[in-house]
Amino acid sequence: MQQFSVPQFLQREPKIFGPFTFKEFLALVFIGALIAIGYFWFGKKNLILFLLYSIFVGGGGSFLIFGKIQGMGTIEFLGKFIDFILGSKKYLWKKKEFTQTEFLKKDSFFDESLKADKDDALNKIKKKKNIF
Q1: Where are the beta strands (DSSP E) in the chain?
Q2: Contact at 8 Å (CB) between 31 and 62?
Q3: Burial code of 23-54, b = ≥16 C-beta within 10 A, e = fewer?
Q4: Which band of pLDDT confidence, cut at 50, 70 and 90, is reported for residue 100?
Q5: What does pTM read for this prediction?
Q6: Core-most of 8, 23, 57, 63, by most CB within 10 Å?
Q7: Domain membership flag for residue 5
Q8: Does residue 4 lie in a domain region?
Q9: Residue 119 belongs to what domain range?
Q10: Dihedral sign from CA coordinates of 104, 108, 109, 113
Q11: 2 found inside a domain
């Protein structure tokens, strides 16, 4: 019998205003209101400044509403990013300092019976080289 994988944890908001969800619609209305306020504030006096303002507000707002970063909405991503930056961080790992002999004793390959004496090593060198 063939098994099928069933997707879990699907999150879908209902589309209320055409292709937009309620949150997206409210955000678009807010962005439109900001652009309208900008028009009445300085749009009649300086058209180029108003166009730059509306591109900045409209583009930034659209990115915040419809953009996705790593599969999640931009606003949700920014919220998690700010929580991470401002939240407390707990580091559990602590480095323990070892001396060289303690480190060797903890090594599984270290065996005390294989340890050579200094005198044995010097005697072997003297026999082979006859230098001393």
Answers
A1: 68-69, 72-73
A2: yes
A3: ebbebbeebeeebeebeeeebeeeeeebeebb
A4: low
A5: 0.54
A6: 57
A7: no
A8: no
A9: 13-132
A10: positive
A11: no
Residue type, 89: K
Q: What are phi and psi of 17, to 5 degrees?
A: -105, 85
Which residue's structure tokens are 């209101």? 33
At residue 94, what is the residue type? K
- Terminal CA-to-CA distance of the chain, rounded, Å? 84
- Asked if residues 56 and 44 have their Cβ atoms less than 8 Å apart, the reply is no
Give the whole-angstrom CA distance, residue 17 versus residue 111: 76
Provide the number of structural domains found in the chain.
Answer: 1
- For CA atoms 60, 62, 64, 70, give the dihedral sign: negative
Lowest mean pLDDT among 42-46, 74-78, 103-107: 103-107
- Classify the C-alpha dihedral 73-76-78-81 as positive or negative: negative
- Residue 3 counted as domain residue: no
